[in-house]
Specification:
Elements (H helix, E strand, L loop, with lengths): L15 H21 L1 H25 L6 H5 L7 H8 L9 H8 L19 H30 L8 H8 L36 H5 L4 H21 L4
Helix pairs in contact: 1-2, 1-9, 2-9, 4-6
């Protein structure tokens, strides 16, 4: 019937072969780009940077705008001190710890030294590499701290995404005795007959897409960051 994406809408089926096909084609295209020369590599990297910056602006704008009930049902609250208090303490799932979470974050900062691999193309490597590396570290640190704070103030850890539940439990005119459905924030297995919630920072890996204004630019930013890293690896590795 045609291509329907790499992941089913129920998040239960992951199409590995689709990932292999798309990844192989992308890798070949990036290889061709690296063979063409550094001029085109620089142009593409600049275009990817612009897309990445637009996605970040899209994310920040989304936190200030009123959203649909579908978005609120997924755990988005807008800027809220109560949400920040709920997210302040550690809330590790069973079997997780600081280091297991840090292992996910760590690769995000390993690309900072990629500039050193391109030292042969710099006019004054002795000045440019330390300045560029330190600037990247400071910029990355500030960015991650800001975005982590933004998510902590605007998005809950768990939510069902069920609009009917959200409407029932946020409508003060409905007596609690008449609320026949579990709260959209109640994600215990007992209340949901063993099913897990799919939204909130614990369950949903697309949190930034939910928070952002369009969502599409976040996906574009993810692709831009991934492709940029792949280009840097293919271009920089032979120079090391």
């Amino acid at each position: 019937p045609g291509w329907e994406g790499m992941v089913d809408q129920d998040f239960k089926t992951f199409r590995t072969n689709d990932v292999r096909i798309i990844g192989s084609v992308t890798l070949v295209l990036i290889l061709v780009l690296s063979i063409v020369g550094m001029d085109w590599v620089t142009r593409v990297q600049k275009a990817l940077l612009v897309l990445l910056l637009f996605s970040q602006v899209d994310f920040i704008i989304g936190t200030f705008l009123p959203r649909s009930q579908e978005v609120y049902a997924k755990g988005f609250t807008g800027w809220s001190i109560e949400t920040a208090k709920a997210n302040l303490g550690a809330n590790y799932e069973e079997g997780e710890s600081f280091f297991s979470v840090f292992a996910v974050f760590f690769p995000a900062v390993t690309g900072i030294v990629a500039g050193a691999n391109l030292s042969g193309d710099l006019k004054d490597p002795a000045v440019a590499i330390p300045k560029g590396t330190l600037s990247a570290i400071v910029t990355t640190y500030i960015t991650y701290m800001i975005y982590g704070t933004v998510v902590g103030f605007t998005y809950l850890t768990q939510a069902s995404g069920n609009v009917t539940e959200y409407e029932m439990w946020t409508n003060s005119s409905i007596p609690e005795s008449d609320r026949t459905l579990p709260s959209y924030l109640d994600c215990t297995a007992a209340s949901r007959e063993g099913e897990q919630c799919q939204y909130g920072t614990i369950h949903d890996q697309q949190t930034m897409a939910v928070i952002s204004f369009t969502g599409y630019l976040i996906y574009g930013g993810c692709f831009a960051a991934t492709i940029s890293s792949a280009i840097a690896s293919l271009v920089g590795a032979p120079r090391v």
